[in-house]
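User: Last request for today: this protein with zinc ion, please.
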Amino acid sequence: MLRKSLAAFVALVVLGLSALFTFGQKIDENLPDWNDVYEFFGMAEEIEKGEVYEQPFTMSFLDVGQGSATLIHCKDPDFTMLVDTGEQGNDGVIQEELKRLGTRKLDYVVLSHPHSDHVGSFPELAKSNLSIKNVMLPIVDQDHLGDDTALYRVILGSIRSSGAKIVTAKPGMRLTFDAKKSDQKVTVEVLGPIGGKENQYQDDLNDRSIFVKITYGDVSLLITGDGEYHEEMDVIDWLNSDEGKASGITAQSTIYVAGHHGSHTSSSRRFLAMVKPKYGIISCGKDNEFGHPHESTLTNFKDVNARVYRTDELGTIVIGTDGKTLVN
Ligand SMILES: [Zn+2]
Ligand SMILES: [Zn+2]
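Assistant: Here's the final one, the structure of the complex with zinc ion:
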């Protein structure tokens, strides 16, 4: 912090002097403020403290230990989405946050890929009195599921009994929800997985993760499940393809949840260069056996000047916004 302030101070002096030389007497109005200095050097500022639940739009990165579960809630449009559920036994954490948000309805549940640390609590949620409208699933080849076959069948059964509609994630998909009292809207866009059952990475379920981007005003959030290097490259290729360009979808996002809990196999430099996040969230368990997050991932985030927040250090992280400013 001290070093950053010092660098910023030096920058302020330099910019101030250049303003003096450039604008002579009009120095006062041309002096850059701290935000200009931070922006000039690409340094990410800490998110401001504020009344997070009073904001019109909130993102709750739930502490589900080694796993991932994110609740996105908007007051107007009245929209709630859950991306992944964490391991079995985390339904209480999700229910508690829903209570805090004052809703019993999930418009969308995105199950990024059928690994237990992402879908484990779905059966409990499906059995509860929550109203689940839609469940988004990736295309996976059931013949390649191996050990994950049983869990996948349980999930399909739970979706059926919950009465939710299954929506298949396809790149280019865009859902828009309009506010009633303003011209605000929530947009949900799908960037991956690419292709269907023929995709060459079907043997690795992580690389079949749904990549989903949610936008409210100027603020966007990208979640990529456990998508690893191959899928990140697939998505970049798709974004650069004619179809990807025509979709108008970009990877650029204010907040990015590090793929695969901050593993070095995800959040590659090439992918981060496309996402250009200001803030990174890492969802992982304290002292987890995989050593997540890996050092190289933290370095990659640092190199794009993204500030990182970790659930293993902070517990549940809630960020709210009015579509412009972030508070937490
Ligand atoms: Zn996984
Ligand atoms: Zn995982």
